[in-house]
Amino acid sequence: MSSVSTTHPTPGPSVLVIEDEKTLAGMIGAYLSRAGYQARVVHTGPEGVQAVRDQTPDVVILDLGLPGLDGIEVCRQIRTFTDCYVIVVTARKDEIDTLIGLSVGADDYVTKPFSVRELVARVQTVLRRPRTGTSRAHRQEPVWVFGELHVDSVGQQVHLAGDPVALTPTERDLLMTLAERPTMAFSRRQLIDEVWGDDWVGDEHLVDVHIAHLRRKLGDDPDTARYISTVRGIGYRMGKG
């Protein structure tokens, strides 16, 4: 008599939805579950911080207008202990909220109203981004040196004058991309394809926001750049302007 073995599907990546509009939150969670993700929903800022700490999700979908703690503060707090991907959701139209959100470590954003299918597609896109730099691990030069800036492609660490530089995952991926090909001038679209994926859709000026924060952390003046130069009419490259 032959035995029959049963296999259980491997659980998909985990996504935490922090959204106070309960109907919308439930809809997002349902779409994510149908797409194969492990979805959990909470409705306040403090619940969100605790859930990230307890559950260590792969992706957080974070509304900015939360009770208890707003999304900016939630993002600031969770960035002290996790580098999970963060996609900000906002109903606010003024650009400053988006810029502030990215400055504390968000990887992407969508503005309400939005298609839930589009949001799920954004989750799929960020999860396709490599997290450990394995694609660069075989390079002959594991550490790229630009003056006092040392970029470790294997260890995924950055040091400036011997001190570690705390970067968000997106900032680190951008820097690694530029450092890997220091003579190449990248357009915004090329950087998006490299870091966010070639199926990412949205405002390409998102790149400028992340580059600005990266420069600030490196103490780099765009007018007299030491590390990341603006190539007018094209985009950005590694090295002095």
UniProtKB/TrEMBL annotation:
UniProt keyword list: DNA-binding, Phosphoprotein, Transcription, Transcription regulation, Two-component regulatory system
Pfam families in alphabetical order: Response_reg, Trans_reg_C
Ranges annotated as DNA-binding: 141-240
GO biological process: regulation of DNA-templated transcription
A single GO molecular function term of this UniProt record: phosphorelay response regulator activity
Domain OmpR/PhoB-type positions: 141-240
Residue numbers bearing the 4-aspartylphosphate modification: 63
Domain Response regulatory: 14-127
UniProt xrefs under InterPro entries: CheY-like_superfamily, OmpR/PhoB-type_DNA-bd, Sig_transdc_resp-reg_C-effctor, Sig_transdc_resp-reg_receiver, WalR-like, WH-like_DNA-bd_sf
GO cellular component, one term: protein-DNA complex
Keyword Manganese: no
The protein's name in its UniProt record: DNA-binding response regulator, OmpR family, contains REC and winged-helix (WHTH) domain
Species assigned in the record: Tessaracoccus bendigoensis DSM 12906
Phylogenetic placement of the source organism: Bacteria, Bacillati, Actinomycetota, Actinomycetes, Propionibacteriales
